[in-house]
Amino acid sequence: MPELPEVEIIRRYLDDALRGRVIESVTILLPRQLKHPDPEAFRALVRGQRIERVARRGKYLLIHLQEGAHLVFHLRMTGSLVYEPQGTAAETGHTRMVFSLAGGGALRFSDIRTFGCVYGFAAGEEIAVPGLQSLGPEPLSDEFTSSYLAAALKGRKQPVKSFLLDQRRIAGLGNIYADEALFLARIDPRRAAGSLSVAECRRLAEAVRKVLRDGIADGGTTFRDYRNGAGESGHHQEHLYVYHREGKPCPACGRPVEKITVGGRGTHFCPYCQS
Fold first, then answer.
1. Has this prediction a pTM greater than 0.90?
2. Is 178 within 8 Å of 164 (Cβ atoms)?
3. Active site residue ranges
4. Which residues pair with 62 in a beta bridge?
5. What is the pLDDT at residue 135?
6. Which one of 3, 50, 59, 181 has the lowest number of neighbouring Cβ atoms within 10 Å?
7. 132-173: per-residue pLDDT in tens?
8. Rounded Cα distance, 155 and 245, in Å
């Protein structure tokens, strides 16, 4: 699943490529991925609309249209949103929706496993997207501090790894970057969240910010499906500390990285460095 760095990279590219462009029409190839409104109303909503800007909240992409209308995309496991300067509405690969742009080019929403969701909201309409309004602070914002983390963790018995994946606590963090941050902070992912000391909370907050910034700088992480807004793969997978590296040497101590299950999620860590 694209996490904060991957979605932010898509946002930056699309904001630059699409700002000021006008949507001429939309072709809906898999209507069940359009969650709101119905296809006819959605076509009418976007037709002739100018794109004002592309924003992000957690793992959600928001396209702000003229006069207050909005499009919301949640890519989930395998979704992608790619701008094609010479693109057309023709169906290719796993295309689910194509926005044809005035003057040429297209914005293509593709999704192999079809878990992704698309929403459209008219000006003044409540943006009613499940999970969007309950998101926690952005981890790269000034709201996310070691003090916030310490207060949010206090008294919690769940594993700290599970806490990091709770989007109501921290927006946009997922399995890859949670594992990486815990390794960098030298914290066992199985630890009770509320057991972390003030110093550990400080290390963890710093580690979260570092791994996310590094992921963005490297163009995101691509193991199989992720593509940026231009359709290109990322290369942060070449620089990961522990994620997807079970059995390989820990970059700090040289012992094998292990993979376990924490809260139902595959988790990579070094049992020596993170003890």
1. yes
2. yes
3. 2-3, 59, 265
4. 55, 72
5. 98
6. 50
7. 999 999 999 999 999 999 999 999 999 999 999 999 999 999
8. 32
Q: Tokens 């983390």 — which residue?
A: 149
Alpha helices for the chain (secondary structure H) = 4-18, 39-46, 146-153, 160-165, 175-185, 198-217
What residues does CATH 1.10.8.50 cover in the chain? 146-269
Record the tokens describing residue 31, joined without a space.
């209507």
The architecture that CATH gives domain 146-269 is Orthogonal Bundle (1.10)
- CB-neighbour burial class of residue 121 (10 A; exposed 0-12, middle 13-18, buried 19+): buried
198 burial level (CB within 10 Å; 0-12, 13-18, 19+):
exposed
d(CA 100, CA 87): 8
Residue type at 248? K
Q: Environment class of residue 261 by beta-carbon count within 10 Å: exposed (0-12), middle (13-18) or buried (19+)?
A: exposed
Q: Is the pLDDT of residue 200 over 80?
A: yes
| CATH topology assigned to domain 4-121 | N-terminal domain of MutM-like DNA repair proteins (3.20.190)
Say if residues 14 and 107 touch (Cβ distance below 8 Å): yes
- In 3-state terms, what secondary structure has residue 51? strand
Q: Is the dihedral of CA 230, 235, 237, 241 positive or negative?
A: negative
219: left (phi over 0), alpha (psi -120 to 50) or beta: left
Q: 135-173 burial, b for 16+ CB within 10 Å, e for fewer?
A: bbbbbbeeebebebbbebbeebeebbbbbbbbbebbbbb
Please give the torsion angle defined by the CA atoms of residues 156, 161, 163 and 165, in that order, rounded to the nearest 10 degrees. -170
